[in-house]
Amino acid sequence: MKTENNCIELNTLKNKLKSKNEIVIIDVRSNEEYNEKHIPNAINIPLDKLENEAKTFDKNKFYVTACGKGGSRSAAGAEKLRQMKFKALWLGGGTFGWFY
Known about the structure:
The chain is built from 5 helices and 5 strands, in the order βαβαβαβαβα. The chain is α/β, with parallel strands linked by helices. The protein has a single domain (7-99), classed as Oxidized Rhodanese, domain 1. A 5-stranded parallel sheet has the order 1-5-4-2-3. The protein is globular and about 35 Å long.
């Protein structure tokens, strides 16, 4: 499920979620932003806490990071996870794109 720029597009992710349950969506925004609106079933781990929390993650799962619009925070989160040897992409369009 790798892409050229380590990004997965919304439609691709939605299709993959229908058939795979080993995908985990991580919302890397603040708790306040997450509480306003988030992708269904996404877990909230702010970017500054991601590295520490990831120590308990399952290496067999695939991780998709999301922020508001999809870009700097989610890309940074996915890169951090890849450096820790996890399979991870960031969500193009982000949380806002999911709903609009």
